Amino acid sequence: MRNVVIIFRRELASYFATPLALVFIVIFLVLAGALAFQLGGFYERSQADLAPFFNFHPWLYLFLIPALSMRLWAEERKSGSIELLMTLPVTPWQAVLGKFLAAWCVAALALALTFPIWITVNYLGDPDNGAILAAYVGSLLMAGGFLAIGSCLSAATRNQVIAFILTAVVCFAFLLAGFPLVQSLVAGWAPQTLIDAVASLSFLTHFSAISKGVIDLRDLVFFASLIAAWLAATVIVLDMKKAD
Amino acid sequence: MLEISHLTRRFGVLTAVDDISFSVAPGEVLGFLGPNGAGKSTTMKMITGFLAPTSGTARVCGHDVETGGLAARRSIGYLPEGAPGYAEMTVRGFLEFIADIRGLTDGTRRARLDDVVARLGLEGVLHQVIETLSKGFRRRVGLAQAILHDPPVLILDEPTDGLDPNQKHEVRRLIRDVSKNKIIVISTHILEEVDAVCTRAIIIAGGRLLADDTPQGLEARSRWHGAVTLALEEPVALEVVCARLLGLPEVASAEATGPRSVTAFAREGTAALPAVGALAAREGWKLHELRPETGRLDEVFRSITTGRAPGAGDA
Predict the structure, then answer these.
(1) Is B14 on the interface with A (CB under 8 A)?
(2) pLDDT tens per residue, range A172-228
(3) Residue A123 pLDDT > 80, yes or no?
(4) CATH number for the domain harbouring residue B287
(5) What is the pLDDT of residues B88-111, one digit of tens each?
(6) Contact yes or no for B289/B229 (Cβ under 8 A)
(7) Is residue B251 within 8 Å of residue B258, measured between CB atoms?
(8) Could B97 and A87 be called an inter-chain contact, meaning their C-beta atoms sit closer than 8 Å?
């Protein structure tokens, strides 16, 4: 655990040593606000909730999270520092977890800085703050899921652009797993159980459940196990390919 | 103790390291010699646990690098090829990160950091970001990182590559300074380095271990070992000199190596100098110089790694 904390701190500091974290946070805040007010019709709906704000999060994450995760391992491989890191007395799990948590922390910070919109809605009306909190939790978990996918795909390549594109594509598939676009890919040939299994992986379905204010244990377990699975995959990919 | 036994690594059809075995005892500085692509870095990556061997084992201080990886890695200080580091960190931040992850605690942490910073002359760049450093400083930061926890085993992959002569001298002095009671393995293709710091040298090429000897032992394999060069003051028929020299039982061969100089190559296990000196006095040759030669490591290296007999075709 000590090593996880040390790696986490180093990684987090390096996000802020380069403009990456700041650019991410600023763009996230600007777009989240703009989408909620312009496309979401935050005022026009005349409802005291944050649905128009949270509805756009999956789509924002789709292209912002890969930008955050692409450097996690690809950069280490490119610069060769992976050889340094993996020959220090740390286990691959500690390294993977420390780095992932640092990236998640940046995402969490961006999310936390959207608090003015929460103040606004409380000023204008009387929203269900429990539901808003639940939506924040759901959004954070979804960001973690995207980041875990990005961590694994970043470990698979030394090229950050490839890591970005692969992550965006895989995240898109997970996002829409329950929708016709992805369903039609499996519907033709797969048995019904597989189709249902794929549909159950949909980020959108799980996220919208939570963002309505219903924290169901199954949705939490879904995101937690998804993160764990992709991080485990990162460890395996690293083990296989670290020296390539 | 560092024990390498039958270490082999294949990449697809390519065998990068082919059944290498050797062991290094504390106090030894082992020079790992070989042409580029000989398998030096691959071997070092396996010793440090970065790369898993296809077969064979490496044991560091009693810990197998595969089954006891963490313990083995704790006792190793490693400078990877090219001295990679985290470009966006300051030198101080980077060294503190390494100190933390190496588990140095408050008392020793400060002392060790001060020690390596002073040893490697990093005081002036402590607050500089690593990517803005010159190549020499980056290499020194890499070395500082490797010796920070005062490990019993140091694996240094081309520690002086790309440094200027002064920096090379500094790095070699550092290696000699820290070498007491440590196991040090350095890879290099600079032969003068072997003479300068190593107590033992291993030559590998094509992934195979071809020679394992002291630097002096390797030099003795050179035909220049024990040879004597005579530089004559006035023009003499060099063929005559050569013929006379060949008459000596100690001399294996003699040939003209300059317009007025002749080199007599000693028969193995003999010293040519006294006999050649006596002969020159008897013959009344006016000598400008009578110079004993030492073995030439580059020639031995070439002949071993290319599989030709020493001295064949290149005098």
Answers:
(1) no
(2) 988 888 777 777 777 777 788 878 778 788 888 888 888 887 888 888 899 999 999
(3) yes
(4) 3.30.70.100
(5) 999 999 999 999 999 998 889 999
(6) yes
(7) no
(8) no
Structure tokens at B5: 């036994």
CB-based contact B102 A89, cutoff 8 Å: yes
Q: What is the largest CA-CA distance in chain B?
A: 76
Q: Radius of gyration over alpha carbons of chain A, in Å?
A: 19
CB neighbour class for B212 (10 Å; exposed up to 12, middle 13-18, buried from 19)? middle
Answer whether A171's CB lies under 8 Å from A146's CB.
yes
> Taking CB atoms and an 8 Å cutoff, what residues of chain B touch A78?
none
B146-173 confidence digits (pLDDT tens): 999 999 999 999 998 878 888 888 888 8
Q: Specify the 3-state DSSP secondary structure of A206.
A: helix
Cβ separation of B84 and A7 shorter than 8 Å?
no
Report the alpha-carbon distance of residue A81 to residue A95 in Å, rounded: 13
- Would B52 be classed as within a structural domain? yes
Range of the domain at A24: 2-241
Q: What is the pLDDT of residue B313?
A: 42
**Predicted pLDDT of residue B45:** 93
Q: What is the pTM of this model?
A: 0.88
Write out the H or E segment, with its range, that includes residue A43.
Answer: none
**3-state DSSP assignment of residue B230:** strand
d(CA A237, nearest CA chain B) in Å: 14
Amino acid in position A177: A
User: Residue B29 is encoded by which pair of tokens?
Assistant: 């500085």
pLDDT at B295 over 90: no
Cα first-last separation, chain A: 28
B-chain residue closest to A82, CA distance: B84
Residue at B175: amino acid letter: I
Domain interval for residue B274: 228-293
Q: How far is the alpha carbon of A147 from chain B, nearest alpha carbon, in Å?
A: 22
Q: In this predicted structure, what is the pLDDT of residue B189?
A: 79
DSSP alpha helices (H): ranges in A80-191? 81-86, 92-112, 115-124, 129-155, 160-175, 180-187
Q: Does B286 reside within a domain?
A: yes
Domain boundary residue, one of B220, B252, B269: B220
**Angstrom distance (rounded) from CA A63 to CA A211:** 20
Q: What was the ipTM of the complex prediction?
A: 0.88
Q: Give the closest-approach CA distance of B120 to chain A in angstroms.
A: 19
More confident residue, B174 or B271: B174
Subunit contact A87:B86, Cβ cutoff 8 A? no
The verdict on a CB contact (< 8 Å) between A87 and B100 is: no
Does B214 lie in the same domain as B286? no
Averaged over B200-212, what is the pLDDT?
A: 90
Is residue B248 domain-shared with residue B186, that is, in the same domain? no
Count of domains forming chain B: 2
Across chain B, what does the average pLDDT equal?
A: 87
